């Protein structure tokens, strides 16, 4: 029997074990546990419960003494292991040449309890297919918890003698936060990382303890095992049902906590889960850096999991326990706060300084920066930084969607190496003067505005470069939803839409031909079912060990079949019009009848179908040769 008033509840420790296993497996392979990220939600519920319990135990004469006691305990729990983990990871990043600005600043922010706010600032989409190589992304949850620690101690100190006021205030904060969480569902980044939209889960855990303490709620063991099963089931439900699984798991987690606090259950409180729960914090700190930096294929991945557990065990024995229970824990509370505050600020400042001092490495899984060239919108053509000026050569007008935007490194090379004037214009969809699309709106209006601008500002010898993911509109991609093409308010089939698009391209080509302007269209970039980060091992790359990752290789025949009708149409236009040219990058990624998003262990894509800055270096010769031939 384990009472709620015991110092240690084995069932809660087991729940921590379940939570960290779910998160680790999710980051290892999302297909294994589609909603494993909910392990963090489970952590929030547990934290709200446990922290409230610990606050009730504090005996203090005034709020200063109360907060000092609480924060010194929290600092000892969180920061020693965190600081060591951050610097250990930084060493690995340096050794594997993976230093990048976002990772460094996320790591620095984590030492101040602010990484979640930084990720909001840089709009890091946790579920985004174009999420970059950030080994500190997981520290966002620590930031949310640490920000929760600002509110809860004050709330409990002021109201714990008035149980009714405390419970009503807690429920009010919970309700407001949950309403914001639901209402901000379209703002995915803010909703996921913000302490405002996450407060409700931590408060739910807090309310759970308040109700249990006041009512001594008991749960039948049969119900407890059912709640345990439901929590596990939530992890395996598809992420598309997140609007249901998040509140469901949160409610069931509260019931499960009450259950494990009512009576110990042998299935839940088994020694393995209890042990994993005991090292869950260190496991959580190290799991993402180890998975991302090693990422061994197949059965070799067992090695990285073994290393992860060894690191976590060492962290607990050499860092966590000495600071929490050993001689180092005997430091005065003021000294503990002062020491870790100073260390965290100095360390964070040092890391941020490095991020500004050394920007030589670029993240191959991040969208290209816009320091020198920033595309203008179709309704603000010619805006600041959208043109790299040159008077010595022809002008290049780059038009298109995010795939055109991904060619910015190559555009910059054409300007700096060859003296071309380069202008970038985003259409936020297909470049066309006659077609529209349901989700992207009036494409035809944008296209006409761009053509008029080019006709007005272009001169003989200039080139219009069109780059769109045409398979999304006229074929089928692996991961993007099909576009719904409209002509005169009528929804077209893909075949009819391609036919109309072909005629539109010919019309634009003929119009530009009258002014001596040529067109280069980039054939669809080969796309892949999986994000290339799934096949990236910085450690193996550093050691120059080649391995086969089937997740990032597809048949050339399959790709040719999927692109065939589009490429065929483009070739017919090229044969018919002397000022219409095609650049096809497929041979760059082809070898032995297969296509890969990698070349010699180096990623060429920053997501499933956008070329990164490395791929741009291979595309550049194709462009310069074509431009010199026009």
Short description:
The chain has 23 helices and 15 strands. The chain is of the alpha/beta class. It has two domains: about 10-355, no CATH class; about 375-525 and about 560-585 and about 610-630, SGNH hydrolase (Rossmann fold, 3-Layer(aba) Sandwich), CATH 3.40.50.
Description:
- This protein has 23 helices and 15 strands.
- α2 crosses α11 and α3 packs antiparallel against α6.
- β12 (590-591) and β13 (594-596) form a beta hairpin.
- Mean pLDDT is 90; it is low at 1-6.
- It has helices at 10-28, 38-57, 63-95, 101-110, 115-121, 140-159, 163-183, 188-193, 195-215, 221-236, 242-262, 271-278, 280-294, 301-324, 333-357, 402-405, 408-418, 443-457, 470-474, 494-513, 538-542, 556-576, 613-629; strands spanning 376-377, 387-388, 395-400, 421-426, 436-437, 463-467, 485-487, 490-491, 518-522, 553-555, 580-583, 590-591, 594-596, 598-599, 602-603.
- By secondary structure, it is an alpha/beta fold.
- 58% of the residues lie in helices and 8% in strands.
